[in-house]
Specification:
By secondary structure, this protein is an alpha/beta fold. 61% of the residues lie in helices and 13% in strands. It folds into 3 domains: 2-347, ABC transporter transmembrane region fold; 359-395, no CATH class; 400-632, Rossmann fold, CATH 3.40.50. The protein has helices spanning 2-14, 20-28, 30-33, 37-59, 61-73, 79-133, 137-141, 145-187, 189-236, 238-243, 247-273, 275-298, 304-347, 439-446, 469-474, 490-495, 503-512, 516-520, 539-553, 569-583, 618-624, 627-632; strands at 359-365, 371-373, 381-387, 390-395, 400-407, 416-423, 428-433, 454-459, 462-463, 476-479, 488-489, 529-530, 557-561, 587-591, 603-608, 611-616. It has a 6-stranded mixed β-sheet, sandwiched between helices. Strands 2-1-3-4 form a 4-stranded antiparallel β-sheet. Strands 6-5-8-9 form a 4-stranded antiparallel β-sheet, covered by helices on one side.
Length: 639
């Protein structure tokens, strides 16, 4: 816990914000991916119509004031009064029509932008989730679940808010500002110069503040991800926290992180929020200046100049409002850009490398033993290798060989050194040794969760690097010590091992794992819904379902990593009987701390500090009188 909090400050000082313009451009490329370019074009058209309507309605203030001034000079009996009054009401009706048009177009553009943002979010989430499926296991080992979830919560929500509201307001304001300035130039060039000076001053101030605010919003998103990661980790480990009475320690560590989050967030919003008051006060100042200058310019002039001044002041207020709206959206835009940068950093993480060309296919065998690829299920598999000389099919047997394998997770500390072993088809190979000896690492290398540093691993005589990872892993089934059950029914969790398995196959797999009895006594049997990683089951029952999941996959190679560690001795013996039929004809790798579970293995590998120090069957190792003998007789215990 201390390690997490200690590294936050150093990470923040080293990170710099990426190019906002590049991030913006990349983000808007998703309008094409989301198939919403047409929606966006119509939204822009609706925005133009909206701004034309609002600007036109304001411009009608000039003839309204002029007509009103004229009516005040007419006598009640003057025939021109009736004509002026009719013109006045016509102008009012015209203004009302423009405002109704503005209302309709405003609804249309907001509805269209909502459709655009929804489609962009769909495409963005899809790319993020798909990309995560292709990332190597090492990436997930180096990031907490909370950090990863933060991409789909904090960051994606910030981007959605910008695309839905902020971009809409920015487009409206920018187009409106262009129209307002144009109308100001038509009304009075001299007064317009004052407005341009105001605009330049505000632009320079906002640019300076937004630069400072943007850096802090980036830091805020980073700290938010780490705070979320810490919270999720503590929630998952709440039983451990309470069991050891570490509530105060956890709260202390969280307070440090939360304080940093508060500090960074406050600094970011302080810079951003100061823009609004500055612009508001500047707008009042320039409004007063324009009123004074306009009064001086038009005093003593024609009465029509009053309409110009009133209309110009109306545009000043709109000009200030539009600038204020832009400044108000800076908070959301800067926060969204920070989130978008993090999202694109995730999308730029290199995917898991896979240079394999050999695939796994269903085959049928004729009387001469020739293999032919087929679509129907035959329960017979072969490796398909396409060469210049044609297509070759190699029967899948489960022959695994390690030759002089070295491996390191970080490139510094050697985890495996000069490991050589073989597993013939149908053999049961067991790995025993202390924690950290490298047992699980060997099984991770078979799956190519990690690639070896040197040496070679072959599968049926084929270098596993030449086999496509998906096909390699499809030929294997793993039962891990830490079981994970999905929010679904028991049947669906078992079927996860083989998605096209029938109910009968799933039930048979449960019987093999000796899980059928307790499943049958659940409230809804195989249709019982499991939630919260199977919290409504005991740890042993969850392990049984995980074993059934592996059994239904019907693989040529089976890996059991402490598969029976959470099961009592009586149940373990029952499972072993059922597993015998599952293991028959298959290569099985077993990692176990209970030496009783590996006694019947064909070969037992004793590992220490990443090296195999002893190998042989149970009887041979006892006769040897080495480390295995010491472990078995209780002179040492596995940890």
């Amino acid at each position: 816990m201390a390690r997490v909090t200690d590294t936050i400050g150093s990470k923040l000082t080293k990170r710099r914000a990426d190019n906002p313009l590049r991030t913006f451009k990349r983000l808007f490329s998703y309008y094409g991916k989301g198939n919403c370019k047409v929606y966006f074009v119509f939204a822009v058209i609706a925005t133009v119509l909206y701004d034309i309507a609002t600007i036109g309605a304001s411009f009608m203030m000039r003839p309204l004031v002029d007509v009103l001034e004229k009516t005040m000079t007419y006598q009640s009996a003057d025939p021109a009064l009736a004509a002026a009054s009719a013109k006045y009401f016509a102008l009012l009706i015209g203004m009302a029509c423009l405002y109704v048009t503005a209302m309709i177009t405003n609804y249309a553009l907001n509805r269209l932008m909502l459709e655009c943002s929804a489609r962009v979010m769909y495409a963005l989430r899809k790319d993020m989730f798909a990309h995560m499926q292709e990332l190597p296991i090492s990436y997930f080992d180096g990031h907490t679940h909370g950090e990863l979830m933060s991409y789909f919560t904090n960051d994606i929500d910030a981007v959605r808010e910008m695309l839905h509201h902020s971009i809409t307001q920015i487009i409206i304001s920018v187009i409106s500002l262009v129209g307002i300035v144009s109308m100001m130039l038509v009304l009075s060039i001299r007064l317009c110069v004052i407005m341009l000076v105001m605009g330049i001053c505000i632009f320079l101030i906002v640019k300076k503040i937004s630069t400072l605010s943007g850096k802090n919003f980036k830091r805020q998103q980073q700290v938010a991800a780490q705070v979320n990661g810490y919270i999720e980790e503590m929630m998952e480990g709440q039983k451990v926290v309470k069991a050891f009475n570490h509530e105060d320690v956890v709260m202390k560590d969280f307070s440090v992180m939360n304080e940093q989050f508060c500090e960074v967030g406050t600094r970011a919003h302080t810079y951003a929020n100061v823009v609004g008051p500055i612009m508001n006060n500047l707008s009042h100042i320039f409004y007063a200046i324009t009123t004074t200058v306009g009064a001086m310019l038009f005093t003593g002039g024609a009465t029509a100049k009053t309409g110009i001044l009133v209309t110009f002041l109306q545009y000043i207020r709109q000009f200030a409002d539009r600038l204020s709206q832009i400044s108000q959206q800076f908070n959301f835009i800067l926060l969204a850009l920070a989130g978008a940068e993090r999202i694109f950093e995730l999308l730029d993480v290199p995917v898991e490398n896979d240079d394999g060309q050999i695939t796994l296919v269903n085959v049928k065998e004729d009387e001469q033993g020739n293999l032919t690829e087929c679509d129907e299920k035959t329960c017979k598999w072969a490796w398909k290798r396409v060469t210049d000389n044609g297509t070759e099919y190699i029967r899948v047997q489960g022959n695994v060989v390690f030759s002089d394998v070295d491996f390191s997770y970080d490139g510094k500390k050697q985890v495996l050194h000069n490991v050589s072993l073989y597993a013939k088809p149908g053999q049961k190979i067991a790995f025993v040794g202390s924690t950290g000896a490298g047992k699980t690492t060997i099984t991770n290398l078979i799956n190519r969760f990690y690639d070896i540093s040197s040496g070679i691993v072959t599968y049926d005589g084929i270098n596993i690097k030449d086999i496509k990872k998906a096909d390699l892993r499809r030929s294997l089934a793993m039962v891990l010590q830490d079981t994970h059950l999905f929010t679904a029914t028991v049947m669906e969790n078992i079927r996860y091992g083989k998605l096209d398995a029938t109910d009968e196959e799933c039930i048979q797999a449960a019987k093999i794992a000796n899980a059928h009895y307790f499943i049958s006594h659940l409230p809804d049997g195989y249709n019982t819904m499991l939630v919260s990683d199977g919290a409504n089951l005991s740890q042993g029952q969850r392990q049984l379902i995980a074993i059934a999941r592996a059994a239904v996959a019907d693989p040529p190679v089976l890996i059991l990593d402490e598969a029976t560690s959470s099961i009592d001795t009586r149940t373990e013996k029952l499972i072993e009987k059922g597993m015998d039929s599952l293991m028959e004809g298959r290569t099985v790798f077993v990692i176990a701390h209970r030496l009783s579970t590996v006694r019947n293995s064909d070969a037992i590998m004793v590992l220490e500090n990443g090296e195999i120090i002893e190998r042989g069957n149970h009887d041979d190792l006892l006769k040897l009188g080495g480390k295995y003998y010491q472990l078995y007789t209780g002179m040492f215990e596995l940890s």
